[in-house]
Amino acid sequence: MTDTIESRLAAAGIQLPAAAAPAANYVPYIRFGSMLQTSGQLPLEGGRLAVSGKLGAGVSLEDGLHAAKLCGVNILAQAKAALGDLETIGRLLKLTVFVASDPSFTDQHKVANGASDFLVEILGERGRHARSAVGVPSLPLDAAVEIEALFEVA
């Protein structure tokens, strides 16, 4: 088997879901020249919100890591919907990670690792990226994490 993004997804036991439709008046992604920007992706699994609430107030770091990984899976689903072939990803340039947090919670960067580690595993060197991790008081649908991505398209 060749070493492709699809083969790494299969080896990790990940089957990309259908890309989530927008929940309001926006588009799920936008392509501009050689750039692809995704809208924020929630931790959806099986079409349902998998992790809700606030980190540090009922949501554990482990649950936050899982939520971030699910956001990463959904980012790749949007990229596939936009590009057709994930191999056209030149590089993941940046993730912006929003973590619904109790005011005392300061490990947003650790939560973000759930997505960062997953995307580097699946995309390889193309997945190494810049990142911001920001604590926020709440997110849509009471999601614990929301992540947007910026890709360079080869």
Automatic annotation (TrEMBL):
Top-level taxon: Bacteria
Residues covered by the Endoribonuclease L-PSP/chorismate mutase-like domain: 6-145
CDD domains: YjgF_YER057c_UK114_like_1
InterPro entries, per database record: Endoribo_LPSP/chorism_mut-like, RutC-like_sf
Pfam families: YjgF_endoribonc
Record-linked SUPFAM superfamilies: YjgF-like
Name of the protein: Enamine deaminase RidA (YjgF/YER057c/UK114 family)
Originating organism: Aureimonas pseudogalii
